[in-house]
Design goal:
The chain is mainly α and 167 residues long. The protein is built from five helices and two strands; from the N terminus they run αββαααα.
Length: 167
């Protein structure tokens, strides 16, 4: 457990630094009259993640977290099973984006995660799986004006309807 905590913190810190470096290819500050530059959010979110990794490493070094003083294995059989099911769901989500659009993939992933992994009721599952993608659509396409992948042509009627609402 002890080795797993510091290894993951180190790996995430390296990933954070890479994302910070990569996001500087675009402006990371505010552009007068336009708002934040294209690299603003990736840079500052990665900086926050790096800071969190440094706090984890400091707590590990000082022995302040339960994991930093534990000699137990990183994960038991239930933990590995959970990683496989959640990781498989995320891989399925990524694979579905080009087929059913980003929003369709979010809806399918939410049904899988909430109903089948979380064992929540169908009412709660469908309420979240239907409203969250629509909310994300209005946020990204309407407010932020960022187009997400729209999948294969059979998803176009959904987008036509939603664009009519926005514009």
């Amino acid at each position: 457990m002890r080795l797993g905590e510091i290894s993951l913190a180190g790996l995430l810190a390296l990933f954070s630094m890479y994302l910070m470096w990569k996001s500087t290819e675009l402006p990371i500050g505010f552009i007068r009259g336009q708002g934040p530059g294209g690299g603003f959010w990736p840079f500052w979110l990665s900086a926050g993640m790096l800071l969190s990794c440094l706090v984890i490493a400091l707590n590990w070094w000082r022995g302040k977290s339960p994991a930093s003083t534990s000699d137990e294995p990183l994960m038991d059989a239930f933990g590995w099973r959970t990683v496989i099911f959640v990781g498989g769901g995320v891989a399925g989500f990524v694979a579905l984006v080009s087929v059913v659009s980003m929003y369709g993939a979010v809806a399918i992933f939410l049904v899988y995660y909430l109903r089948f992994l979380g064992r929540h009721s169908w009412l709660l599952t469908l309420a979240i799986a239907l409203t969250l993608p629509v909310g994300l659509f209005f946020f990204f396409e309407g407010a932020m004006q960022i187009s997400m992948p729209q999948g294969l042509p059979f998803t176009q009627p959904f987008f036509d309807l939603m664009y009519d609402i926005i514009y």
